[in-house]
Amino acid sequence: MNMKSIKLLSLLIFIAWAAPSCVFLEDRLLVGMTLVRDAAAHGAVCLDGSPPAYHLHRGFGAGEHNWLLQFEGGGWCNDIPSCLDRAKTHRGSTRHMSKWEVFSGILSNNAYLNPDFYNWNRVKLRYCDGASFAGDGKFDNGTSLLYFRGQRIWEAIIRDILRKGLATAGNALLSGCSAGGLATFLHCDNFRNLLPLNTNVKCLSDAGFFLDIRDISLNPTMRSFFEDLISLQGIEPNLHKKCTQSFAFPKWCFFPQHALKYITTPFFILNSAYDVFQFQHGLVPPSADLHGHWNRCKLNPAECNATQIDILQGFRRGMLAVLNPFYQDSGRGGMFINSCFAHCQSESQDTWFADNPPRVHNKTIAEAVGDWYFNRRPTKEIDCEYPCDNTCHNLIPPPPKVSQIIP
Ligand SMILES: *[C@@H]1O[C@H](CO)[C@@H](O)[C@H](O)[C@H]1NC(C)=O
Ligand SMILES: *[C@@H]1O[C@H](CO)[C@@H](O)[C@H](O)[C@H]1NC(C)=O
Ligand SMILES: *[C@@H]1O[C@H](CO)[C@@H](O)[C@H](O)[C@H]1NC(C)=O
């Protein structure tokens, strides 16, 4: 047995002995899972029928009555085979999930690493429905059974946390990354309405601003993918009511760019203008690059040729164009659109706030979000275009498992 496994073993013995709700492993905060057991009575279950879950680390001191909720992300499943596969993994079942989650970045409890939210009650909502916590339906053909209950999971978790102190929150922030960032657009006003009028409620989406665009071969890849998702999982009735009543194409209220103007709760949009997920799956999906001409560019922007860079600059301009009304609005919105090849920058310590984090106009993401949340100063930061920003931590994932995310 080596040192590492001895450490791990003693950690496990310690957990079994003390049954704490959190532990520290090599300076990382690990927070234990809470299953929402009575959720099944409300039909709120994961794809495979297992109970939904969250991880809660209690606030303290001045943050004792403040609440940060973070939706976990992780793609979507938009047809029966992909949802059946997903139901057998940690993305579709709490039975297969890690029971301990690292709390870092915006979830960290360390004042030096997370200056504005470290002492809040911080909650990570586990993602097991495959539809950004917004579906409501079921598939049952006698041999296969799947639950599409994201909306009910959201409601069940909120009910549980309201009882644990959220109902008397002074400050509250609903956040999330990727599919979880999209969930913050979908649930922000609903969250506002569930809390007392005197609670200060705001929402933050990280890497959730999925654009309604055509890919490089002019196919509406994202639309087709979301269209299947919306109908399979029964999402449309749960979209923002004001948007679905006013917008000519109600189901496209699923796209943040169409729903945004109907959201009345103060909102912060954190996104890279070259979001690598959207680049790899929405702008240049494998179906639009059958010969793999983009493979090297997808993994390293320095390998993109001039034509490819032009296309990426067009993507950025498109994002800024649809964000322009929000940018011009003098209301309580905030934004941080940087030019790093990244996807999700609030959960990782490297990008949130650390020794050398990405900056725009010399401001870190944690400072920008804190300044906006506490009304310290208006915060709408837009970075100059690639490759001007030398503070980036380009976070490009290994080649995607295409079949699980976008066909
Ligand atoms: C039910 O659906 C699954 C997945 O699509 C399929 O493999 C199976 O054959 C279906 N069973 C029946 C009875 O149609
Ligand atoms: C860049 O690469 C693409 C894909 O291989 C190719 O079609 C295009 O002509 C190249 N452009 C330049 C300027 O080399
Ligand atoms: C940028 O911010 C850092 C710390 O926040 C500060 O030390 C530095 O002087 C600032 N640089 C400029 C050019 O304002």
Automatic annotation (TrEMBL):
Cellular localisation: Secreted, Cell wall
Entry's Gene Ontology BP terms: cell wall organization
A Pfam family this chain is assigned to: PAE
EC main group: hydrolase
EC number: 3.1.1.-
GO molecular function term, any single one: hydrolase activity
Signal peptide (from-to): 1-18
Highest taxon above the source species: Eukaryota
Keywords: Cell wall, Cell wall biogenesis/degradation, Hydrolase, Secreted, Signal
Function description: Hydrolyzes acetyl esters in homogalacturonan regions of pectin. In type I primary cell wall, galacturonic acid residues of pectin can be acetylated at the O-2 and O-3 positions. Decreasing the degree of acetylation of pectin gels in vitro alters their physical properties.
Membership in a protein family: Belongs to the pectinacetylesterase family.
Protein name: Pectin acetylesterase
Species this protein is from: Rubroshorea leprosula
